[in-house]
Design goal:
Elements (H helix, E strand, L loop, with lengths): L1 E4 L5 H11 L11 E5 L6 E11 L21 E10 L8 H15 L4 E6 L2 H5 L4 E3 L6 H14 L4 E6 L7 H8 L35
Antiparallel strand pairs: 1-2, 2-3, 3-4, 5-7, 6-7
């Protein structure tokens, strides 16, 4: 299993699965996405994107944080969004490695911090994301959060991570190394699938879309 940049020819596949999972397709560009690939069979297991938002007047985009990214002086902030994993690949670290590749892209683009707006805070904090008070967000990010709240629900929170502090837990690296689609004869079922309860989420009430 590995993660690579999406190819132009995968645009239809991406759009189909973005629609299927109910993810954000605004300002879609296939080059913003990465795709997780099953090395043995060549099939796709998951995907995600970074979205760069332009702000007006070059306003700093780090809220009250002293480590706001250096691109924000140019009027931009970076968001990790639209992470999706096919059902048969969930619980095997695919989403974690998709996110890791996206964080690397953000670093390459000159960002020092990446934002995430999601009701699944318990999932994201294991990678180093930290909550941000919504009242401290500059207007462009506050507007973006309002949009996500309308789509995802009132449990949505804003989180941020320094790109150099993002980390994938060892258990997810091990699962990713031996990942196989559920139901295969391989060892994809050798460990129990992660569930919402692993992160303190009530599966009967949660409506988040980061099911990775």
């Amino acid at each position: 299993m590995y993660v690579r940049d999406a190819k132009n020819r995968e645009e239809v596949w991406l759009l189909d699965h973005i629609e299927e999972f109910g993810l954000d397709d605004a300002a879609f560009r296939s080059r913003d996405y990465v795709v997780a690939i099953d090395e043995s069979g060549g099939g796709k297991a998951g995907f995600g994107r970074i979205r760069i938002h332009k702000t007006e007047g070059g306003e700093r985009s780090g809220g009250s944080r002293s480590s706001s990214d250096r691109r924000s002086d140019g009027g931009e902030f970076c968001e990790l969004t639209s992470v999706g994993v096919l059902p048969e690949w969930r619980g095997q670290g695919v989403g974690a490695h998709v996110m890791e590749r996206l964080i690397e892209h953000a670093r390459d683009e000159g960002f020092e911090t990446v934002f995430l707006f999601t009701p699944a805070a318990e999932y994201a904090t294991q990678f180093g994301f930290e909550p941000v008070e919504s009242s401290s967000l500059p207007d462009p990010m506050a507007d973006r959060m309002d949009t996500v709240v309308a789509e995802e629900g009132e449990d949505t929170v804003a989180l941020v991570v320094d790109v150099d502090e993002f980390v994938v837990p060892d258990r997810l690296r091990r699962r990713f190394k031996d990942a196989a689609p559920r139901g295969d004869d391989g060892d994809g079922d050798s460990e129990p699938e992660e569930t919402a309860e692993d992160f303190g989420i009530d599966p009967d009430e949660a409506t988040y879309k980061y099911d990775v």
